[in-house]
Amino acid sequence: MHSEGVAPRNSHDRRDRTGTPSIDSVSLAIIEQLQEDGRRPYAAIGKAVGLSEAAVRQRVQKLLDQGVMQIVAVTDPLTVGFRRQAMVGINVEGDLDPVADALTAMEEVEYVVMTAGSFDLLIEIVCEDDDHLLEMINKRIRTLPGVRTTESFVYLKLRKQTYTWGTR
């Protein structure tokens, strides 16, 4: 029996001590199916993982709502008009969070990670051309309060970009 106003929790609805959703083996199998083909029908996924189409639909929605996964079309930026990509290493004085938050809010920034090592933050930016890249680095990133230094790694050619690492 559960308290009024509190929904019963399923095994795929639990969180670990850090607040991260705990994913059961069936949900992991669903994620793997979608990583192989993000357009795979729920009925086919259900057959592969032993659930009904409705149950798969419900689990996928929960995984999306929890931020565990996204279903997106991955493109080669060059083919859709973005001629310049770069990884930028950033060193910050003080608290990383405000700088990471400001970078996350920038449309051109696709990836933000806090790191240990030579840089405090690594970001990936996708720009239309070199002028756009220069504006991003010189006018928008380096001017953020707390940014001490940046080092840019301009991509010359994209050789591999996949998101099919599975759930191991």
Describe this structure in words.
With 168 residues, the chain is of the alpha+beta class. The chain has helices spanning 25-36, 42-49, 53-65, 96-104, 130-141; strands at residues 84-92, 109-114, 121-127, 147-154. It is elongated. It starts with 24 loop residues before the first helix and ends in a 14-residue tail after the last strand.
Distance separating the two termini: 35 Å
Structural class: alpha+beta
DSSP summary: helix tally: 5
Low-confidence stretches: 1-13
Percentage of residues in helical conformation:
25-40%
The neighbouring-strand order within the major sheet is: 2-3-1-4
> Which radius of gyration do the C-alpha atoms yield?
20 Å
Percentage of residues in DSSP E strands:
15-25%
Q: What is the overall silhouette? A: elongated
Order of secondary-structure elements: HHHEHEEHE
**Integer average pLDDT:** 86
What is this entry, summarized?
32% of the residues lie in helices and 18% in strands. With 168 residues, the chain is α+β, with helices and mostly antiparallel strands.
